[in-house]
Amino acid sequence: MDRNNEDLIVGGYKFATIADAETARMEEQKVDNLEKHLDYSKPQNVLLVYNRAIENKIFLTPVGFAYLRKMQNEMVKWGVPEDKIQPVPLYGTFSNKTENNSSIRRSIAARKPKVEYKGRFITSVLINVIMVLLVISMFVVSWKSDVPNIINYRTAVLNEYSEWEQQLTEREKAVREAEKEYNLTP
C-alpha cells in the first residue's frame, strides 16, 4: 500500500485530505482519553459529556461520530430516555440531489443581503461626470489665468519679453530725443 494512502486512513475510514486524517487522529486520541476516564455505569455523567461534546463540536469526523453513537447506545442501555439524548449533528451534506442543493442554495441566498447594483452604477456614473467637469474647469481656469503655468508659460514668457523690448525701445527713443534737445550727440 502507498505511503500517502496510509496517511489518509484512520479508524477504518479513508479521508480525502491529510488534514482531515490528522483531525481524525486527534479525535481518536480524545476518544481514548474519554474511554480511560468515563464511567459508563453513571449515565448522567455520560449524558453530560455527550451533550458538551455536541455543543462544543468536539467531533467533526466519522471517527468521532462513531464514538458519539456508541455513547448514545450505552445511555439507552442504562435507561436514559431517548428524548433526552440529542441526535448526532452532521455538519455536511451527503447527496447531490437537486432538492437538497436547492434548499441549501435558498438558505444561503436568504442569508446574503441583496445589493442594488443599478443604484450603485448610477451613483458611480454621476460621480465620474462630476469629476470630469471639475478637471475641465481646472484646465479652463489655468488657461485663462495671468499667472504662468504649464499650459500657458510660453505665451506668458513671450509676452513678458515683448513688453520689456517695447519699454526698452521707448526709453531708447526718449534718451535720443533728450540727446537731440541738449545737443549731446557725438
Task: Chart the SSEs and their pairings.
Blueprint: H1 3-8, E1 9-10, E2 13-14, H2 18-37, H3 43-55, H4 62-77, H5 98-111, H6 117-144, H7 153-181
Antiparallel strand pairs: 1-2
Compute the CA-based radius of gyration: 44 Å
Give me the secondary-structure category: mainly alpha
Q: Give the termini separation.
A: 120 Å
> Strand order within the widest sheet?
1-2
Q: What string, H for helix and E for strand, traces the elements in order?
A: HEEHHHHHH
The low-confidence parts are none
Number of strands: 2
Helix content: 55-70%
Look at the structure and give the mean pLDDT: 81
Total helices: the number is: 7
How much of the polypeptide forms β-strand, as a percent range? Answer: under 5%
Q: What overall geometry do the principal axes of the alpha carbons give?
A: rod-shaped
State the major sheet: 2 strands, antiparallel
The total number of structural domains is 2
Quick summary of this structure?
The chain is an all-alpha fold.
Would you mind describing this structure in some detail?
- The protein has 186 residues and is mainly α.
- The protein folds into two domains: 3-111, no CATH class; 117-181, no CATH class.
- Helices cover 68% and strands 2% of the residues.
- It is built from seven helices and two strands; from the N terminus they run αββαααααα.
- Strand 1 and strand 2 form a beta hairpin.
- Helix 3 (43-55) packs antiparallel against helix 4.
- The protein is rod-shaped.
- It starts with a helix and ends in a 5-residue tail after the last helix.
